[in-house]
LolA-like putative outer membrane lipoprotein chaperone
Amino acid sequence: MNKKIFTLLFLILVILGSLQAQTSAQTMQILNKAAAALNAKGGASANFSISGGNIGKSSGTITIKKNKFVAQSAQATIWYNGKTQWTYMKSSNEVNVTTPNEAKQAVMNPYAFVNIYKTGYNMSSTTQGNSYKIHLTAQNAKRPLKELYLLINKQTYVPSQVKVLQGKNWLTINITNFKKKKISDSAFSFNSKEYPSAEVIDLR
């Protein structure tokens, strides 16, 4: 009897492991297609709205090109050229220069997951209406971006929502009006000539 039970348990574990591997493979395929849609040659733009987390509510536009982005809202403009980030605050006329980690990038750029999902995350997917719902959890608890959910359109593979865990709170980013467009690389770096009176504070 015990041998039969152990055999049955072993078979169940094998089946569950196979299903998990299949789910991960399917999820990776969805994310690969989403990454391809976002990494359009030349770049893309979209509208966004943010709520929750530690930043309250905000909305604006975002322009992306591979791992670069520019986000504009009523309060601030953020440039990221793939290495350095400049944040211009309109209220203080200051520009903070930083080198953000992946968690901070995710707060500013709803498409940041494109650059991090391939390594170090457990993943699963379900369907929600006309979208895939993707769940990513970091395998390393010390990773800055520990957990996130994505809603990805089944037809276009463009994400419409990103939810990121910030401490114990969830930050929700909704994305609309995604359009492919050609954008110069220079658009993703702060141009001091356009803000001659701004105080630049280097926090790197």
Q: What stands out?
A: The CA atoms of residues 3 and 155 lie 49 Å apart. The chain has one domain: 2-202.
